[in-house]
Amino acid sequence: PIINDPLFFGIPNEPQQLDSAIEEVPKKYYIAYKSSKNIVCMEAKSKNIKLFVKLKPSEVIEPPKSYRDVSKIGHYGTGEVEFTISIPEEFEETKKYIELAYNKVGG
Question: pTM to 2 decimals?
Answer without folding.
Answer: 0.87
